[in-house]
Amino acid sequence: MLRGWTGLLLLQAAATAAPPVLVIAVDGFRYDFAARERAAHILALKKEGASVEGLIPSFPSTTFPNFHAMATGLHPARHGLVAMMFYDRSLGRGFQYTRNAAEGEWYGGKPIWVLAEEQGVRAATFFWPGSDAEIGGKRPSFYRKYDGRVSHEERIAQVLDWFRMKDGERPGFVIVYFSDVDSAGHRYGPDAPETKAAIAKVDASVGVLIEKVRALRPDANIVLLSDHGQIAVEEHLDLTQKANFQGCRAANEAPMTMLYCDNPERVRAELLKNAPEVSVWRRAEVPEHLHYRDNPRIGDLVITPKRPSIVFVTPPGDADAKPVPALQGMHGYDPRQYREMRGILTGVGPAFRRGAVIPPARTVDVYVLLARLLGLKPPGGLDADFGRIRGLLADDAR
User: Fold this and answer.
1) How is domain 2-74+109-232+337-397 classified at the architecture level of CATH?
2) What are the pLDDT digits (tens) for 213-251?
3) What are the residues facing 215 on neighbouring strands?
4) Spatial separation of the C-alpha atoms in residues 179 and 25, rounded to whole Å
5) pTM of this prediction?
6) Which three-class secondary structure state does DSSP give residue 241?
7) d(Cα 103, Cα 93) in Å, to the nearest integer?
8) What are phi and psi of 145, to 5 degrees?
9) Strand residues in 162-246 grouped as ranges (E)
10) How many angstroms separate the CA atoms of 295 and 357, rounded?
11) Does domain 236-326 have CATH number 3.30.1360.180?
12) Distance between CA 223 and CA 206 in Å, rounded?
């Protein structure tokens, strides 16, 4: 028994001794936005630190599935958050990110903040999607419930307050999240002046935050990342008149829709005949490279547009299936088909190489990168591959 406690204490001491880690998460920041808009602070970070050429999201390349992929090292079909909206027959109800995001039962895997807390590193999260839910009975030591009205200034001030806490209370792992670029891209399109202004606003806040954190902790390792990119929407496809959807539920993800039907084969046959502008896959036949088959929360039918368009269905009697608004920018598409789905991953600090640029990594790989920075032992059976991000790290941190 003494030997077990000694090992635990040593593990906790090792984890606590690691330099603090700050993660700055920028929703919807495409891999080329910084260079395109001359985002000075983010470009300076890339020059000083180490970056991937692009961070490839899991399918669907949407926010909650990929933030939880980064948090767990698992693809959505394995961590269970298979879309922004989906239906769970075993529970008899659906998930909608605007309604159920703080309910821990939807989230599988072991989030990185839970892993950190279990191994002696206090965690603090400010709006990372899902981090305000109780997952596996646990939460970060410090967290904020999501409220998109909270200003950048308040977010920065809270991060600095966490770093100023006294020894024994101060978190060693801090996350802060900004959604401006994603929101502007959806509403106005990725090339619009409003989206360019959002990029500039986030860039300025990144600069302020890093300067002030470094004044408190010069040894901090800082990770800047995004969950996906975005692309201009070409068309809005309402498929409601293309088939008889009686007996179906629809989860309208916008870049795709999933159908849960009493008779999916009939519906599929009708769509294949009447809707050539979309692909209609049975769950078991979704292309293998998307890793999107082996979860019953995925619809009986997965419908995706053949161009970067929005697609939706409003079956009769399905009160949750709403038409998708006329968004101008979107993501969620196959990242192999659309390079624009790629996000960013840059690291600066003592653990990272200077000026390194490595081939694209995947959102699931963020988990093992953060575990290495925090001195944590990750669980087995992950989809993450440390080999894809090893080149970001200095020799003594690999």
Assistant:
1) 3-Layer(aba) Sandwich (3.40)
2) 999 999 999 999 999 999 999 999 999 999 999 999 999
3) none
4) 8
5) 0.94
6) coil
7) 13
8) -70, 140
9) 173-178, 221-225, 231-232, 236-238
10) 35
11) yes
12) 11
